[in-house]
Design brief:
Elements lengths: L2 E3 L2 E3 L4 E9 L5 E9 L5 E10 L6 E7 L8 E5 L10 E2 L12 E2 L4 E2 L8 E10 L7 E9 L11
Antiparallel strand pairs: 1-2, 3-12, 4-11, 5-8, 5-12, 6-7, 6-11, 9-10
């Protein structure tokens, strides 16, 4: 419902959710999935979960970050083994020990949750080994819409 503030009609802020599916194919390679987050947005969460464990012969590791730090949010999530098996989810509140430098585990602080500039949040999966074609992993970015920001008044 619109809100009237200072004579202006303002729409409520929206929580936007964008989801990327990473699908393993045979042979070693690099998979990249990205979400562009507009400037002045706040990132509320980045979730990663699998519906099928990856079967690459040697390794299948995922980083999540941005241009400044490719593993700033999450680092080296093992998609083959214990870090992220089917039915589990990594998220800001429970990153499973895979926190990047943007997440301060001791305080729960998210260092780059807001940015004045637009940024691209990318998940990058690197597989090593000739076999494997079963893995399915999702990355979901939740952020608020910066277009509907109201202003406080001073009395």
């Amino acid at each position: 419902m619109p809100v009237i503030s200072g004579g202006n009609v303002q729409q409520p802020s929206r929580l936007l959710v964008e989801t990327i599916l990473f699908t393993e194919t045979t042979g070693a390679g690099t998979y990249t999935g990205s979400v562009t987050v507009p400037g002045n947005s706040v990132i509320h969460d980045i979730k990663v979960w699998s519906t099928a464990v990856w079967t690459a012969t040697t390794t299948a590791l995922m980083d999540v970050g941005d241009a400044a730090d490719p593993d700033g949010w999450y680092t080296q999530i093992d998609l083959k083994a214990t870090d992220l098996v089917v039915g589990e989810q990594i998220r800001f509140e429970s990153a499973g020990g895979q926190e990047g430098v943007y997440y301060v585990a001791a305080t729960g602080e998210l260092e780059t949750a807001w940015s004045a500039s637009a940024r691209v949040i990318s998940g990058i999966v690197v597989t090593v080994g000739a076999a494997g074609n079963a893995g399915r992993t999702y990355m979901q970015v939740l952020y608020s819409d910066p277009a509907n920001i109201g202003a406080a008044t001073k009395v």
